[in-house]
Design a protein that fits this description.
This protein is an alpha+beta fold. It has 20 helices and 15 strands.
Protein backbone atom coordinates (compact mmCIF):
# COMPACT_ATOMS: atom_id res chain seq x y z
CA UNK A 1 0.00 0.00 0.00
CA UNK A 2 1.36 3.41 -0.98
CA UNK A 3 2.16 5.71 1.87
CA UNK A 4 0.13 8.94 2.06
CA UNK A 5 1.85 11.98 0.63
CA UNK A 6 3.67 14.10 3.11
CA UNK A 7 1.87 17.25 4.11
CA UNK A 8 -1.45 16.18 2.65
CA UNK A 9 -4.39 17.87 4.37
CA UNK A 10 -7.73 16.30 5.06
CA UNK A 11 -10.69 17.46 3.00
CA UNK A 12 -11.84 20.85 4.11
CA UNK A 13 -8.43 21.75 5.46
CA UNK A 14 -7.43 25.38 5.52
CA UNK A 15 -3.76 26.22 5.43
CA UNK A 16 -3.85 29.98 6.06
CA UNK A 17 -6.83 30.82 8.27
CA UNK A 18 -5.23 34.11 9.32
CA UNK A 19 -5.37 35.47 5.78
CA UNK A 20 -9.03 34.57 5.42
CA UNK A 21 -9.87 36.30 8.70
CA UNK A 22 -7.91 39.36 7.61
CA UNK A 23 -9.89 39.44 4.35
CA UNK A 24 -13.30 39.54 6.01
CA UNK A 25 -12.10 42.04 8.61
CA UNK A 26 -10.93 44.33 5.79
CA UNK A 27 -14.35 43.97 4.17
CA UNK A 28 -16.06 44.94 7.43
CA UNK A 29 -13.84 48.01 7.82
CA UNK A 30 -14.45 49.02 4.19
CA UNK A 31 -18.23 48.73 4.53
CA UNK A 32 -18.20 50.69 7.78
CA UNK A 33 -16.05 53.41 6.22
CA UNK A 34 -18.37 53.52 3.21
CA UNK A 35 -21.34 53.93 5.51
CA UNK A 36 -19.81 56.95 7.26
CA UNK A 37 -18.62 58.38 3.94
CA UNK A 38 -22.18 58.24 2.59
CA UNK A 39 -23.30 60.56 5.38
CA UNK A 40 -25.96 58.14 6.63
CA UNK A 41 -25.40 55.94 9.68
CA UNK A 42 -28.93 54.62 10.18
CA UNK A 43 -31.07 52.52 7.83
CA UNK A 44 -33.83 54.17 5.85
CA UNK A 45 -37.16 53.39 7.53
CA UNK A 46 -40.35 52.33 5.77
CA UNK A 47 -43.62 54.20 5.89
CA UNK A 48 -45.00 52.00 8.69
CA UNK A 49 -42.12 53.01 10.98
CA UNK A 50 -41.26 56.55 9.91
CA UNK A 51 -44.34 57.85 8.14
CA UNK A 52 -44.24 59.49 4.73
CA UNK A 53 -46.44 60.95 2.01
CA UNK A 54 -49.61 59.51 0.54
CA UNK A 55 -51.02 60.38 -2.90
CA UNK A 56 -54.51 59.58 -4.13
CA UNK A 57 -54.74 59.41 -7.93
CA UNK A 58 -58.10 59.66 -9.65
CA UNK A 59 -58.44 58.00 -13.05
CA UNK A 60 -59.88 59.95 -15.98
CA UNK A 61 -61.18 58.59 -19.28
CA UNK A 62 -59.20 59.57 -22.35
CA UNK A 63 -61.08 61.56 -25.03
CA UNK A 64 -62.91 59.15 -27.28
CA UNK A 65 -62.52 56.27 -24.80
CA UNK A 66 -65.48 56.55 -22.39
CA UNK A 67 -65.06 53.01 -21.04
CA UNK A 68 -61.30 53.04 -20.45
CA UNK A 69 -61.65 52.88 -16.65
CA UNK A 70 -61.84 49.15 -16.03
CA UNK A 71 -60.09 46.57 -13.88
CA UNK A 72 -57.56 45.61 -16.54
CA UNK A 73 -56.41 49.17 -17.22
CA UNK A 74 -56.34 50.02 -13.51
CA UNK A 75 -54.12 47.01 -12.76
CA UNK A 76 -51.86 47.93 -15.68
CA UNK A 77 -51.57 51.47 -14.34
CA UNK A 78 -50.74 50.17 -10.85
CA UNK A 79 -47.93 48.04 -12.24
CA UNK A 80 -46.45 50.90 -14.25
CA UNK A 81 -46.67 53.40 -11.37
CA UNK A 82 -45.19 50.86 -8.97
CA UNK A 83 -42.19 50.31 -11.24
CA UNK A 84 -41.69 54.04 -11.58
CA UNK A 85 -41.74 54.96 -7.89
CA UNK A 86 -40.40 51.66 -6.62
CA UNK A 87 -37.92 50.78 -9.37
CA UNK A 88 -36.05 47.83 -7.71
CA UNK A 89 -38.92 46.69 -5.58
CA UNK A 90 -37.26 47.25 -2.21
CA UNK A 91 -37.82 50.94 -1.46
CA UNK A 92 -41.15 49.97 0.13
CA UNK A 93 -43.32 52.44 -1.75
CA UNK A 94 -46.86 51.04 -1.76
CA UNK A 95 -49.10 51.29 -4.83
CA UNK A 96 -52.60 49.82 -4.71
CA UNK A 97 -56.09 50.42 -6.07
CA UNK A 98 -58.90 51.80 -3.96
CA UNK A 99 -62.38 51.39 -5.35
CA UNK A 100 -62.98 51.50 -9.09
CA UNK A 101 -61.13 54.66 -10.10
CA UNK A 102 -58.55 55.56 -7.45
CA UNK A 103 -54.95 54.50 -6.85
CA UNK A 104 -53.21 55.06 -3.50
CA UNK A 105 -49.44 55.64 -3.52
CA UNK A 106 -47.57 55.72 -0.19
CA UNK A 107 -44.01 57.06 -0.25
CA UNK A 108 -41.82 56.42 2.86
CA UNK A 109 -40.24 59.33 4.67
CA UNK A 110 -36.70 59.88 3.47
CA UNK A 111 -37.61 59.18 -0.15
CA UNK A 112 -37.68 62.17 -2.46
CA UNK A 113 -41.44 62.76 -2.25
CA UNK A 114 -41.33 65.71 -4.65
CA UNK A 115 -39.59 63.65 -7.30
CA UNK A 116 -41.99 60.75 -6.71
CA UNK A 117 -44.98 63.07 -7.02
CA UNK A 118 -43.70 64.36 -10.35
CA UNK A 119 -43.40 60.83 -11.66
CA UNK A 120 -46.72 59.70 -10.18
CA UNK A 121 -48.67 62.76 -11.21
CA UNK A 122 -47.36 62.97 -14.77
CA UNK A 123 -47.97 59.58 -16.26
CA UNK A 124 -50.78 60.13 -18.74
CA UNK A 125 -49.35 61.13 -22.13
CA UNK A 126 -45.90 60.67 -23.59
CA UNK A 127 -44.99 61.68 -27.12
CA UNK A 128 -42.16 62.82 -29.36
CA UNK A 129 -42.68 66.09 -31.21
CA UNK A 130 -40.41 67.99 -33.63
CA UNK A 131 -39.01 71.27 -32.34
CA UNK A 132 -39.95 74.13 -34.65
CA UNK A 133 -38.73 77.13 -32.64
CA UNK A 134 -37.07 77.83 -29.30
CA UNK A 135 -37.17 80.95 -27.14
CA UNK A 136 -36.10 82.09 -23.70
CA UNK A 137 -38.39 80.84 -20.93
CA UNK A 138 -39.38 84.29 -19.64
CA UNK A 139 -42.33 86.16 -21.05
CA UNK A 140 -41.31 87.97 -24.23
CA UNK A 141 -42.22 91.68 -24.51
CA UNK A 142 -44.56 92.41 -27.44
CA UNK A 143 -42.62 92.88 -30.66
CA UNK A 144 -43.10 96.17 -32.54
CA UNK A 145 -44.16 94.29 -35.63
CA UNK A 146 -45.17 90.65 -35.91
CA UNK A 147 -43.13 88.25 -37.92
CA UNK A 148 -44.25 88.19 -41.54
CA UNK A 149 -42.19 85.20 -42.42
CA UNK A 150 -43.85 82.18 -43.83
CA UNK A 151 -42.55 79.94 -41.07
CA UNK A 152 -42.04 80.29 -37.30
CA UNK A 153 -38.44 79.35 -37.80
CA UNK A 154 -37.88 82.92 -38.94
CA UNK A 155 -37.62 83.85 -35.27
CA UNK A 156 -35.28 80.98 -34.70
CA UNK A 157 -32.10 82.99 -34.93
CA UNK A 158 -33.18 85.47 -32.32
CA UNK A 159 -34.29 82.68 -30.09
CA UNK A 160 -31.00 80.93 -30.50
CA UNK A 161 -29.15 84.04 -29.46
CA UNK A 162 -31.17 84.08 -26.26
CA UNK A 163 -30.46 80.45 -25.79
CA UNK A 164 -26.75 81.06 -26.23
CA UNK A 165 -26.89 83.63 -23.48
CA UNK A 166 -28.20 80.94 -21.20
CA UNK A 167 -24.95 79.00 -21.17
CA UNK A 168 -25.92 76.69 -23.99
CA UNK A 169 -29.04 75.38 -22.29
CA UNK A 170 -30.81 74.94 -25.63
CA UNK A 171 -29.85 72.75 -28.47
CA UNK A 172 -26.65 73.06 -30.37
CA UNK A 173 -25.87 72.56 -33.97
CA UNK A 174 -25.22 69.53 -36.02
CA UNK A 175 -22.53 67.63 -34.14
CA UNK A 176 -24.15 65.67 -31.34
CA UNK A 177 -20.98 64.69 -29.51
CA UNK A 178 -19.73 68.24 -29.31
CA UNK A 179 -23.01 69.57 -27.99
CA UNK A 180 -23.28 66.77 -25.51
CA UNK A 181 -20.09 67.66 -23.72
CA UNK A 182 -20.37 71.41 -23.92
CA UNK A 183 -24.03 72.08 -23.26
CA UNK A 184 -25.80 70.08 -20.56
CA UNK A 185 -29.30 71.07 -21.69
CA UNK A 186 -28.58 70.36 -25.34
CA UNK A 187 -28.70 66.60 -25.35
CA UNK A 188 -27.44 65.06 -28.54
CA UNK A 189 -28.52 61.80 -30.06
CA UNK A 190 -25.70 59.74 -31.47
CA UNK A 191 -25.85 58.20 -34.91
CA UNK A 192 -25.18 54.70 -33.64
CA UNK A 193 -28.19 54.39 -31.37
CA UNK A 194 -30.40 57.50 -31.67
CA UNK A 195 -33.70 57.45 -29.92
CA UNK A 196 -37.17 58.12 -30.84
CA UNK A 197 -39.90 60.01 -32.10
CA UNK A 198 -39.02 62.72 -34.33
CA UNK A 199 -41.57 64.49 -36.39
CA UNK A 200 -43.44 63.11 -39.29
CA UNK A 201 -42.74 64.39 -42.73
CA UNK A 202 -45.58 66.82 -42.30
CA UNK A 203 -44.28 68.02 -38.99
CA UNK A 204 -40.79 68.78 -40.21
CA UNK A 205 -41.60 70.21 -43.58
CA UNK A 206 -42.35 73.58 -42.05
CA UNK A 207 -43.83 75.09 -38.94
CA UNK A 208 -46.64 76.39 -41.08
CA UNK A 209 -47.57 72.87 -42.06
CA UNK A 210 -48.21 72.00 -38.43
CA UNK A 211 -50.26 75.11 -37.87
CA UNK A 212 -52.23 74.47 -40.97
CA UNK A 213 -53.33 71.21 -39.39
CA UNK A 214 -55.04 73.23 -36.70
CA UNK A 215 -57.43 74.65 -39.26
CA UNK A 216 -60.42 72.43 -38.57
CA UNK A 217 -62.04 73.28 -41.86
CA UNK A 218 -59.28 71.77 -43.96
CA UNK A 219 -58.07 68.70 -42.03
CA UNK A 220 -58.45 66.25 -44.86
CA UNK A 221 -56.63 68.41 -47.37
CA UNK A 222 -53.84 69.27 -44.98
CA UNK A 223 -53.22 65.61 -44.24
CA UNK A 224 -52.35 65.06 -47.88
CA UNK A 225 -50.11 68.03 -48.49
CA UNK A 226 -48.31 70.76 -46.58
CA UNK A 227 -49.57 74.16 -47.72
CA UNK A 228 -47.75 77.25 -46.58
CA UNK A 229 -49.60 78.91 -43.68
CA UNK A 230 -50.80 82.43 -43.87
CA UNK A 231 -48.88 85.23 -42.17
CA UNK A 232 -51.81 85.60 -39.76
CA UNK A 233 -51.46 81.99 -38.59
CA UNK A 234 -47.74 82.37 -38.09
CA UNK A 235 -48.22 85.62 -36.21
CA UNK A 236 -50.85 84.06 -33.93
CA UNK A 237 -48.57 81.18 -33.02
CA UNK A 238 -45.62 83.47 -32.38
CA UNK A 239 -47.80 85.72 -30.24
CA UNK A 240 -48.84 82.72 -28.17
CA UNK A 241 -45.18 81.76 -27.68
CA UNK A 242 -44.22 85.30 -26.65
CA UNK A 243 -47.04 85.46 -24.10
CA UNK A 244 -46.00 82.18 -22.46
CA UNK A 245 -44.08 82.60 -19.19
CA UNK A 246 -42.15 79.46 -18.29
CA UNK A 247 -40.01 81.12 -15.62
CA UNK A 248 -42.68 80.65 -12.93
CA UNK A 249 -44.18 77.46 -11.52
CA UNK A 250 -47.72 78.62 -12.18
CA UNK A 251 -46.88 79.55 -15.74
CA UNK A 252 -45.37 76.14 -16.43
CA UNK A 253 -48.34 74.35 -14.84
CA UNK A 254 -50.81 76.34 -16.94
CA UNK A 255 -48.86 75.72 -20.13
CA UNK A 256 -48.55 71.98 -19.40
CA UNK A 257 -52.29 71.60 -18.85
CA UNK A 258 -53.08 73.40 -22.11
CA UNK A 259 -50.52 71.39 -24.07
CA UNK A 260 -51.63 68.09 -22.55
CA UNK A 261 -55.23 68.72 -23.61
CA UNK A 262 -54.24 69.43 -27.22
CA UNK A 263 -54.83 66.68 -29.81
CA UNK A 264 -51.78 64.75 -30.98
CA UNK A 265 -52.04 66.31 -34.42
CA UNK A 266 -51.91 69.92 -33.17
CA UNK A 267 -48.96 72.27 -33.08
CA UNK A 268 -48.39 73.34 -29.46
CA UNK A 269 -46.28 75.68 -27.38
CA UNK A 270 -44.70 74.08 -24.31
CA UNK A 271 -42.26 74.82 -21.51
CA UNK A 272 -39.00 73.04 -20.82
CA UNK A 273 -39.14 71.26 -17.49
CA UNK A 274 -36.51 73.55 -15.95
CA UNK A 275 -38.40 76.65 -17.14
CA UNK A 276 -35.38 78.10 -18.91
CA UNK A 277 -36.82 77.81 -22.41
CA UNK A 278 -40.11 77.49 -24.27
CA UNK A 279 -40.69 75.82 -27.61
CA UNK A 280 -43.06 75.55 -30.54
CA UNK A 281 -43.59 71.86 -31.21
CA UNK A 282 -45.07 70.07 -34.18
CA UNK A 283 -47.57 67.19 -34.08
CA UNK A 284 -46.65 63.98 -32.30
CA UNK A 285 -44.44 61.89 -34.56
CA UNK A 286 -44.05 58.84 -32.29
CA UNK A 287 -46.24 58.11 -29.29
CA UNK A 288 -44.86 56.83 -26.00
CA UNK A 289 -46.28 53.39 -26.68
CA UNK A 290 -43.67 53.05 -29.43
CA UNK A 291 -40.92 52.78 -26.79
CA UNK A 292 -40.30 49.20 -25.73
CA UNK A 293 -37.67 49.80 -23.05
CA UNK A 294 -35.20 52.40 -21.77
CA UNK A 295 -32.22 52.14 -19.43
CA UNK A 296 -29.77 54.55 -17.82
CA UNK A 297 -26.20 53.34 -18.47
CA UNK A 298 -22.80 54.78 -17.58
CA UNK A 299 -20.56 54.87 -20.65
CA UNK A 300 -16.95 54.62 -19.52
CA UNK A 301 -15.51 53.41 -22.84
CA UNK A 302 -16.25 56.50 -24.92
CA UNK A 303 -16.31 58.88 -21.98
CA UNK A 304 -19.91 60.02 -22.48
CA UNK A 305 -20.83 59.55 -18.84
CA UNK A 306 -24.46 58.74 -18.12
CA UNK A 307 -26.54 58.02 -21.21
CA UNK A 308 -30.06 56.76 -21.90
CA UNK A 309 -30.42 53.76 -24.19
CA UNK A 310 -33.80 53.03 -25.80
CA UNK A 311 -35.42 50.19 -27.67
CA UNK A 312 -38.48 50.64 -29.88
CA UNK A 313 -41.31 48.42 -30.95
CA UNK A 314 -41.46 47.43 -34.62
CA UNK A 315 -43.96 50.20 -35.37
CA UNK A 316 -42.08 52.77 -33.32
CA UNK A 317 -38.81 51.79 -34.97
CA UNK A 318 -40.17 52.46 -38.47
CA UNK A 319 -41.57 55.85 -37.48
CA UNK A 320 -38.33 56.70 -35.75
CA UNK A 321 -36.24 55.93 -38.82
CA UNK A 322 -38.49 58.07 -41.03
CA UNK A 323 -38.46 60.93 -38.58
CA UNK A 324 -34.72 61.04 -37.97
CA UNK A 325 -34.19 61.17 -41.72
CA UNK A 326 -36.32 64.31 -41.86
CA UNK A 327 -34.73 65.94 -38.81
CA UNK A 328 -31.16 65.29 -39.97
CA UNK A 329 -31.66 67.67 -42.89
CA UNK A 330 -32.65 70.58 -40.65
CA UNK A 331 -30.63 73.20 -38.85
CA UNK A 332 -30.82 73.81 -35.13
CA UNK A 333 -33.23 73.98 -33.43
CA UNK A 334 -35.35 72.23 -36.07
CA UNK A 335 -33.06 69.19 -36.02
CA UNK A 336 -34.28 68.45 -32.46
CA UNK A 337 -37.22 66.48 -31.19
CA UNK A 338 -38.90 67.10 -27.86
CA UNK A 339 -39.80 64.31 -25.45
CA UNK A 340 -43.08 65.64 -24.05
CA UNK A 341 -44.67 64.23 -20.91
CA UNK A 342 -48.13 65.61 -20.14
CA UNK A 343 -47.47 68.79 -22.05
CA UNK A 344 -44.01 69.45 -20.58
CA UNK A 345 -40.71 69.04 -22.42
CA UNK A 346 -38.45 66.77 -20.36
CA UNK A 347 -35.67 66.51 -22.95
CA UNK A 348 -35.04 67.75 -26.50
CA UNK A 349 -32.03 66.03 -28.11
CA UNK A 350 -30.74 66.86 -31.58
CA UNK A 351 -30.36 64.53 -34.56
CA UNK A 352 -27.39 64.39 -36.91
CA UNK A 353 -28.37 61.53 -39.23
CA UNK A 354 -31.11 59.06 -40.02
CA UNK A 355 -31.01 56.06 -37.72
CA UNK A 356 -32.65 52.67 -38.09
CA UNK A 357 -32.60 49.41 -36.20
CA UNK A 358 -35.00 50.21 -33.38
CA UNK A 359 -32.33 51.27 -30.89
CA UNK A 360 -31.27 54.71 -29.74
CA UNK A 361 -28.92 56.47 -27.37
CA UNK A 362 -29.39 59.92 -25.84
CA UNK A 363 -26.27 61.50 -24.40
CA UNK A 364 -25.11 64.86 -23.15
CA UNK A 365 -24.61 66.21 -19.64
CA UNK A 366 -26.72 63.67 -17.78
CA UNK A 367 -26.26 62.98 -14.11
CA UNK A 368 -27.11 59.56 -12.74
CA UNK A 369 -30.41 60.84 -11.34
CA UNK A 370 -31.47 62.73 -14.46
CA UNK A 371 -30.59 59.77 -16.70
CA UNK A 372 -32.64 57.40 -14.56
CA UNK A 373 -35.56 59.82 -14.43
CA UNK A 374 -35.63 60.13 -18.21
CA UNK A 375 -35.28 56.35 -18.64
CA UNK A 376 -38.21 55.83 -16.27
CA UNK A 377 -40.33 58.35 -18.14
CA UNK A 378 -39.54 56.69 -21.48
CA UNK A 379 -40.10 53.17 -20.13
CA UNK A 380 -43.27 53.76 -18.17
CA UNK A 381 -44.61 57.07 -19.40
CA UNK A 382 -47.57 55.90 -21.43
CA UNK A 383 -50.46 54.77 -19.25
CA UNK A 384 -53.82 53.43 -20.47
CA UNK A 385 -55.54 56.15 -18.37
CA UNK A 386 -55.06 59.74 -17.34
CA UNK A 387 -54.70 60.54 -13.63
CA UNK A 388 -55.13 63.60 -11.49
CA UNK A 389 -53.56 63.89 -8.03
CA UNK A 390 -56.79 64.16 -6.02
CA UNK A 391 -55.16 64.44 -2.59
CA UNK A 392 -51.66 64.61 -1.16
CA UNK A 393 -51.23 64.11 2.58
CA UNK A 394 -48.42 63.55 5.01
CA UNK A 395 -49.05 60.40 7.04
CA UNK A 396 -47.67 59.60 10.49
CA UNK A 397 -46.03 56.29 11.26
CA UNK A 398 -48.64 53.55 11.31
CA UNK A 399 -46.80 51.71 14.03
CA UNK A 400 -44.64 54.43 15.52
CA UNK A 401 -41.71 54.30 17.86
CA UNK A 402 -43.55 52.21 20.43
CA UNK A 403 -44.11 49.27 18.08
CA UNK A 404 -40.56 49.54 16.78
CA UNK A 405 -39.21 49.41 20.31
CA UNK A 406 -41.41 46.38 21.02
CA UNK A 407 -39.98 44.60 17.97
CA UNK A 408 -36.42 45.43 18.96
CA UNK A 409 -37.06 44.26 22.53
CA UNK A 410 -38.43 40.97 21.16
CA UNK A 411 -35.29 40.57 19.06
CA UNK A 412 -33.07 41.37 22.05
CA UNK A 413 -34.87 38.78 24.17
CA UNK A 414 -34.46 36.18 21.44
CA UNK A 415 -30.76 37.00 21.09
CA UNK A 416 -30.27 36.83 24.87
CA UNK A 417 -31.89 33.37 25.01
CA UNK A 418 -29.63 32.19 22.19
CA UNK A 419 -26.56 33.48 24.05
CA UNK A 420 -27.63 31.81 27.31
CA UNK A 421 -28.12 28.51 25.52
CA UNK A 422 -24.74 28.75 23.76
CA UNK A 423 -22.89 29.58 26.97
CA UNK A 424 -24.63 26.87 29.00
CA UNK A 425 -24.21 24.12 26.42
CA UNK A 426 -21.05 25.04 24.47
CA UNK A 427 -19.13 27.06 27.08
CA UNK A 428 -15.89 28.23 25.43
CA UNK A 429 -17.25 27.61 21.95
CA UNK A 430 -19.89 30.23 22.73
CA UNK A 431 -17.17 32.85 22.21
CA UNK A 432 -16.79 31.70 18.62
CA UNK A 433 -20.55 31.85 18.09
CA UNK A 434 -20.86 35.32 19.64
CA UNK A 435 -17.97 36.67 17.57
CA UNK A 436 -19.57 35.24 14.44
CA UNK A 437 -22.94 36.78 15.35
CA UNK A 438 -21.24 40.13 15.87
CA UNK A 439 -19.52 39.86 12.49
CA UNK A 440 -22.85 39.01 10.83
CA UNK A 441 -24.57 41.93 12.59
CA UNK A 442 -21.94 44.44 11.39
CA UNK A 443 -22.15 43.21 7.81
CA UNK A 444 -25.95 43.22 7.82
CA UNK A 445 -26.28 46.68 9.36
CA UNK A 446 -23.73 48.42 7.12
CA UNK A 447 -25.11 46.80 3.96
CA UNK A 448 -28.67 47.83 4.87
CA UNK A 449 -27.56 51.42 5.41
CA UNK A 450 -25.66 51.49 2.11
CA UNK A 451 -28.58 49.90 0.24
CA UNK A 452 -30.82 52.63 1.62
CA UNK A 453 -28.70 55.14 -0.27
CA UNK A 454 -28.00 52.99 -3.34
CA UNK A 455 -31.41 51.45 -4.14
CA UNK A 456 -33.72 53.21 -1.68
CA UNK A 457 -34.09 50.09 0.48
CA UNK A 458 -36.41 50.93 3.39
CA UNK A 459 -36.51 48.93 6.60
CA UNK A 460 -40.11 48.23 7.63
CA UNK A 461 -41.43 46.05 10.44
CA UNK A 462 -41.57 42.84 8.35
CA UNK A 463 -37.95 43.49 7.37
CA UNK A 464 -37.05 43.80 11.06
CA UNK A 465 -38.77 40.43 11.59
CA UNK A 466 -36.64 38.97 8.80
CA UNK A 467 -33.50 40.19 10.56
CA UNK A 468 -34.68 38.62 13.84
CA UNK A 469 -35.36 35.30 12.11
CA UNK A 470 -31.83 35.49 10.71
CA UNK A 471 -30.42 35.21 14.25
CA UNK A 472 -31.78 31.68 14.44
CA UNK A 473 -30.54 30.78 10.96
CA UNK A 474 -27.03 31.99 11.76
CA UNK A 475 -26.93 30.29 15.16
CA UNK A 476 -28.13 27.06 13.55
CA UNK A 477 -25.09 27.06 11.24
CA UNK A 478 -22.72 27.34 14.20
CA UNK A 479 -24.47 24.53 16.04
CA UNK A 480 -24.21 22.22 13.02
CA UNK A 481 -20.46 22.78 12.81
CA UNK A 482 -19.87 22.52 16.56
CA UNK A 483 -21.75 19.22 16.74
CA UNK A 484 -19.72 17.78 13.87
CA UNK A 485 -16.52 18.65 15.74
CA UNK A 486 -17.83 17.12 18.96
CA UNK A 487 -18.81 13.94 17.08
CA UNK A 488 -15.25 13.59 15.83
CA UNK A 489 -13.92 14.03 19.39
CA UNK A 490 -16.34 11.35 20.61
CA UNK A 491 -14.74 9.04 18.05
CA UNK A 492 -11.41 9.48 19.81
CA UNK A 493 -9.78 12.16 17.65
CA UNK A 494 -7.96 15.19 18.98
CA UNK A 495 -9.25 18.70 18.31
CA UNK A 496 -7.17 19.74 15.30
CA UNK A 497 -8.06 16.77 13.09
CA UNK A 498 -11.63 16.93 14.45
CA UNK A 499 -11.98 20.54 13.24
CA UNK A 500 -10.78 19.65 9.75
CA UNK A 501 -12.62 16.33 9.41
CA UNK A 502 -15.89 17.72 10.72
CA UNK A 503 -15.92 20.69 8.34
CA UNK A 504 -16.77 18.92 5.01
CA UNK A 505 -19.86 17.25 6.47
CA UNK A 506 -20.95 20.40 8.30
CA UNK A 507 -20.37 22.47 5.17
CA UNK A 508 -22.75 20.37 3.09
CA UNK A 509 -25.46 20.57 5.74
CA UNK A 510 -25.08 24.34 6.13
CA UNK A 511 -25.20 24.97 2.38
CA UNK A 512 -28.33 22.85 1.92
CA UNK A 513 -30.07 24.55 4.84
CA UNK A 514 -29.19 28.06 3.67
CA UNK A 515 -30.16 27.24 0.09
CA UNK A 516 -33.64 26.24 1.23
CA UNK A 517 -33.99 29.49 3.23
CA UNK A 518 -32.72 31.59 0.33
CA UNK A 519 -35.03 29.84 -2.14
CA UNK A 520 -38.02 30.54 0.11
CA UNK A 521 -36.99 34.21 0.39
CA UNK A 522 -36.55 34.51 -3.39
CA UNK A 523 -39.98 33.02 -4.09
CA UNK A 524 -41.59 35.36 -1.54
CA UNK A 525 -39.85 38.36 -3.07
CA UNK A 526 -40.98 37.48 -6.61
CA UNK A 527 -44.62 36.56 -5.96
CA UNK A 528 -45.47 39.15 -3.28
CA UNK A 529 -45.64 42.93 -3.16
CA UNK A 530 -45.28 45.70 -0.60
CA UNK A 531 -44.18 44.96 2.92
CA UNK A 532 -43.80 41.20 2.48
CA UNK A 533 -41.03 41.93 -0.01
CA UNK A 534 -39.15 43.71 2.77
CA UNK A 535 -39.25 40.52 4.87
CA UNK A 536 -38.17 38.39 1.91
CA UNK A 537 -35.34 40.74 0.93
CA UNK A 538 -33.92 40.90 4.46
CA UNK A 539 -34.21 37.13 4.92
CA UNK A 540 -32.41 36.48 1.63
CA UNK A 541 -29.69 39.00 2.43
CA UNK A 542 -28.98 37.61 5.90
CA UNK A 543 -28.98 34.05 4.56
CA UNK A 544 -26.27 34.94 2.05
CA UNK A 545 -24.29 36.70 4.76
CA UNK A 546 -24.60 33.60 6.96
CA UNK A 547 -22.73 31.58 4.31
CA UNK A 548 -20.06 34.30 4.09
CA UNK A 549 -19.60 34.45 7.87
CA UNK A 550 -19.43 30.68 8.39
CA UNK A 551 -16.96 30.14 5.53
CA UNK A 552 -14.75 33.19 6.03
CA UNK A 553 -14.97 33.80 9.76
CA UNK A 554 -16.25 30.87 11.86
CA UNK A 555 -14.24 28.13 10.14
CA UNK A 556 -10.84 29.92 10.07
CA UNK A 557 -11.40 31.12 13.65
CA UNK A 558 -11.97 27.54 14.80
CA UNK A 559 -8.83 26.45 12.96
CA UNK A 560 -6.80 29.03 14.87
CA UNK A 561 -8.38 28.22 18.26
CA UNK A 562 -7.71 24.51 17.75
CA UNK A 563 -4.01 25.35 18.02
CA UNK A 564 -4.48 26.95 21.44
CA UNK A 565 -3.86 24.81 24.52
CA UNK A 566 -7.13 25.84 26.21
CA UNK A 567 -9.20 24.23 23.45
CA UNK A 568 -6.72 21.63 22.19
CA UNK A 569 -6.24 20.09 25.66
CA UNK A 570 -10.00 19.73 26.13
CA UNK A 571 -10.32 22.11 29.10
CA UNK A 572 -13.61 21.52 30.97
CA UNK A 573 -14.74 25.08 30.10
CA UNK A 574 -13.77 24.82 26.47
CA UNK A 575 -16.89 22.89 25.54
CA UNK A 576 -14.70 20.20 24.01
CA UNK A 577 -13.83 18.09 27.06
CA UNK A 578 -13.46 14.48 25.81
CA UNK A 579 -14.55 13.02 29.15
CA UNK A 580 -17.68 15.15 29.28
CA UNK A 581 -18.46 14.20 25.69
CA UNK A 582 -18.00 10.49 26.41
CA UNK A 583 -15.14 10.10 23.98
CA UNK A 584 -13.82 6.63 23.15
CA UNK A 585 -10.17 5.94 23.97
CA UNK A 586 -7.95 6.17 20.94
CA UNK A 587 -7.51 2.89 19.10
CA UNK A 588 -4.06 1.43 19.65
CA UNK A 589 -2.57 -1.88 18.50
CA UNK A 590 -1.71 -4.10 21.54
CA UNK A 591 1.39 -6.31 21.51
CA UNK A 592 0.95 -9.94 22.65
CA UNK A 593 3.68 -12.51 23.33
CA UNK A 594 3.66 -15.47 20.93
CA UNK A 595 2.59 -18.73 22.51
CA UNK A 596 3.52 -22.25 21.50
CA UNK A 597 0.89 -24.07 19.49
CA UNK A 598 -1.19 -26.53 21.46
CA UNK A 599 -1.15 -30.14 20.31
CA UNK A 600 -4.71 -31.26 19.64
CA UNK A 601 -3.96 -34.69 20.99
CA UNK A 602 -2.79 -33.20 24.22
CA UNK A 603 -5.90 -31.13 24.41
Amino acid sequence: MAAPKKGRRSPGGQGRPGRVLALILIAMVALTAGMFASGRTTPRLGIDLAGGTSFTLEAKNEPGKPNAINETNMNTAVGIIDRRVNGLGVSEAEVQTQGNKHIIVNIPKGTNAKQAREQVGTTAKLGFRPVLSVADGAKTPPAPTPSASGTPSASKDGDKEKDGAKDGKNKPSGSPSASASAKPQGRAVTDALKADGSPSAKATASAGDDKAKDDKGAKDDKSKKDPTPSPAEVAALQKKLDALDCSTKDGRAEASKAAARAPLTDVIVACKKDGQSKEILGPVAVEGTGVKDADAVFDSQQGKGWIVQLKFTSGGSKKFADVTGQLATKQAPQNQFAIVLDGEVVSDPSVSSSISGGQAEISGGFTQESARDLANILSYGALPLSFDVATETTVSAALGGEQLRAGLIAGAIGLALVIIYLVAYYRGLALVALASLLCSAILTYTIMVLLGEAIQFALNLPAVCGAIVAIGITADSFIVYFERIRDEIREGRTLRPAVERGWPRARRTILVSDFVSFLAAAVLFIVTVGKVQGFAFTLGLTTLLDVVVVFFFTKPLMTLLARRAFFASGHPWSGLDPKRLGAKPPLRASRRRPTAPVDPKEA
